[in-house]
């Protein structure tokens, strides 16, 4: 497929979506949204893809929603279009998604990273929700996902003052999974994605679904869902193979069945 604002590459079972509007620091206009979501959905339908990496440039993962595109919009327009609703479709993608973040991840950029399943950050990464300085508030889930990721204190600090946090503070706070030197960001993120893609895809999907349930439901319902999913794993060939391989002291050969 021909995209204008993103690049999509495949390497083995890992696919990488690179935001590619360098002159606008990857500001997320509606075209970027439509293309990222369409690409992710297409990759999700492809059983040969076991994990997806979403990344930006060295300077910016994404400097936010496109301010120039939305500056003059009226309430009726943004409400009528349900502006930014499209990004929620990323949460329906079942293939695991790794965000590889260098430079600015501000506003919608931070929110896009949080829509992914885990974030690997370069030591140059800067996360922030500066919407309040523009007279708006986060609109792609930031107030909710940031509060769940880093807790109320830091979320309020960031959302009310617009303060940016660096990679180390983001890791300390639980926003990012790992921090690596900037020149190792993409290889590390792709290694993590390859590792995931080497697992059984249906089992990885069950695992992702179970962790996500922790943010949607009560503890007892979540634990119940987890246990039922654990039981369901025994219906797969890959459970038989994984456990047989352990017993035989060899590496498993998963077939995603
Ligand atoms: C549109 C943007 C942009 C954005 C940068 N650009 N961010 N265009 N929307 N979010 C454009 C600039 O206008 C400029 O274009 C070019 O990218 C380079 O940016 P500079 O500002 O010249 O770069 P620099 O001085 O290095 O500063 C980098 C920066 C700054 C600190 C990241 O660009 C910045 O503060 N950007 C806005 C960050 C922000 O507020 N994001 C939140 C957006 S609101 P020209 O044409 O001049 O070269 C949001 C809302 C989500 O995400 C939902 C709620 C509604």
From TrEMBL:
Keywords: Lyase. It is an enzyme of class 4 (lyase). PROSITE patterns: ENOYL_COA_HYDRATASE. It comes from the Bacteria. This is Enoyl-CoA hydratase. Gene3D superfamilies: 2-enoyl-CoA Hydratase, Chain A, domain 1, Lyase 2-enoyl-coa Hydratase, Chain A, domain 2. Pfam families: ECH_1 (PF00378). Its EC number is 4.2.1.17. It catalyses: a (3S)-3-hydroxyacyl-CoA = a (2E)-enoyl-CoA + H2O; a 4-saturated-(3S)-3-hydroxyacyl-CoA = a (3E)-enoyl-CoA + H2O. Belongs to the enoyl-CoA hydratase/isomerase family. NCBIfam families: PRK05862.1 (NF004517). GO terms for molecular function: enoyl-CoA hydratase activity.
């Amino acid at each position: 497929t021909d995209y204008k604002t993103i690049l999509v590459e495949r390497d083995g079972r890992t696919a990488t979506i690179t935001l590619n509007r360098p002159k606008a620091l990857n500001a997320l206009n509606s075209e970027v949204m439509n293309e990222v979501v369409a690409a992710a959905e297409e990759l999700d339908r492809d059983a040969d893809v076991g994990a997806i990496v979403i990344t930006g440039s060295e300077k910016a993962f994404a400097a936010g929603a496109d301010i120039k595109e939305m500056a003059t919009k009226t309430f009726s327009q943004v409400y009528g279009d349900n502006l930014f609703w499209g990004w929620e479709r990323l949460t329906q993608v079942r293939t695991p998604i790794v965000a590889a973040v260098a430079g600015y991840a501000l506003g919608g950029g931070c929110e896009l990273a949080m829509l992914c399943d885990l974030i690997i950050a370069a030591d140059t990464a800067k996360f922030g929700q500066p919407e309040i300085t523009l007279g708006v508030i986060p609109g792609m889930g930031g107030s909710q996902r940031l509060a769940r990721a880093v807790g109320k204190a830091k979320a309020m600090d960031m959302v009310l003052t617009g303060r940016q946090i660096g990679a180390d503070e983001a890791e300390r706070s639980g926003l990012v999974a790992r921090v690596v030197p900037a020149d190792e960001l993409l290889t590390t993120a792709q290694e993590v994605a390859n590792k995931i893609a080497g697992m059984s895809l249906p089992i990885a999907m069950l695992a992702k679904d179970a962790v996500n349930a922790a943010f949607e439901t009560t503890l007892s319902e979540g634990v119940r869902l987890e246990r039922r999913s654990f039981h369901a794993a025994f219906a797969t060939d890959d459970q038989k193979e994984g456990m047989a391989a352990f017993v035989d002291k060899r590496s498993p050969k998963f077939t995603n069945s």
